[in-house]
Design goal:
The protein is α/β, with parallel strands linked by helices. The chain has helices at 8-30, 45-60, 76-88, 107-113, 125-132, 141-152, 172-180, 200-204, 249-252, 266-284; strands spanning 4-5, 35-39, 64-68, 94-97, 161-165, 189-193, 209-212, 230-233, 237-239, 242-244, 258-259. Helix 2 links the parallel strand 2 and strand 3. The protein binds guanine.
């Protein structure tokens, strides 16, 4: 069997068109144009590409964007002062601090400084807490994008055995929380694996849906996947031979039922959900 491809690029285009319509309607009714302020510290080429993609996607959806680029040597205090300015600016609805931050920066303090109403990444503890309690304000972009991919490809999660490989604050943890919530898009039986998991392959082979976000190129191989499983690859690894996911696509494609490619899978969905959150933020701030 060869897995069919879950096309994140095509689905993104569809959802972005929906968001563009909603944004145009919102702006026509309120006179407000949603605005995302992106903060990119330093000059990491990968982060530059990601932020540029986010800005371009905003523009196409009728959302304006600002780019703030403190140097790699900036201090936590300087960054906090910038975030405070953006928090107070009524023209800015969403504030995004691109990660990772340079070592000297207190990341936790910075993410906690973002106004929770403008926290379009949903990284602020208040928004994480709300998510865990099942009353979210914003859904984190990558896990939300994955839920949309499953739902819009008619892949049910209710009662499914979902294995999440990776326990990061950005993907693994919130993904597991969303999948185990009561109701639509959730109701899954969730297992979270990480570097200390015993018999990892045995666990991953139990997955009806396998979601991989560990940042190791081609880590998941064919013998770790149950025949017919849905495999979602969150990995974006730069390797000498180009961009690679966390899943050995060539091998796993022979075993899985459905699989996301890298690139063109989860990546574009993450950006799409950021647009969704920026529109939501503008709505929340417009009475
Ligand atoms: N770095 C990797 N993923 C993300 C993300 O979703 N948001 C931000 N701000 N930085 C990231």
């Amino acid at each position: 069997m060869t897995a069919s491809i879950i096309d994140g690029k095509m689905l993104s285009a569809q959802i972005r068109a929906e968001i563009a319509l909603e944004t145009a309607d919102f702006t026509a009714k309120t006179g407000v144009t949603p605005c995302l302020a992106a903060v990119l510290v330093g000059d990491d080429p990968g982060s530059q590409v990601y932020v540029r993609n986010k800005q371009k996607a905003c523009e196409k959806a009728g959302i304006t964007s600002q780019l703030h680029t403190p140097s790699a040597e900036t201090s936590t205090e300087e960054l906090l002062a910038l975030i405070d300015r953006l928090n107070r600016d009524p023209a800015v609805h969403g504030v995004l601090v691109q990660l990772p931050l340079p070592e000297q920066i207190d990341e936790r303090q910075v993410l906690e400084a973002v106004d929770p109403m403008k926290d379009v990444d949903a990284f602020h503890p208040e928004n994480v807490g709300r998510l865990v309690q099942g009353r979210p304000r914003f859904l984190p972009c990558t896990p939300h994008g994955i839920l949309q991919m499953l739902a819009r490809n008619d892949i049910p999660t209710a009662g499914a055995n979902v294995v999440v490989v990776g326990r990061s604050d950005i993907v693994g943890k919130p993904m597991a929380v969303l999948l185990m919530q009561r109701g639509g898009g959730g109701d899954a039986t969730v297992t979270v694996c990480h570097s200390r998991t015993r018999d990892l392959a045995e666990v991953t082979r139990s997955a009806d849906i396998l979601i991989v976000a560990i940042g190791r190129p081609r880590f998941i191989t064919a013998e770790m996947v149950k025949p017919g499983a849905v495999v979602i690859d969150v990995g974006m690894n730069r390797t000498p031979d180009g961009l690679a996911g966390d899943v050995d696509f060539q091998g796993v494609q022979q075993v899985a039922g459905r699989i996301t490619p890298v690139p063109g899978g989860v990546g574009p969905m993450t950006v799409t959900m950021l647009l969704h959150n920026t529109l939501t933020a503008a709505r929340l701030q417009t009475s």
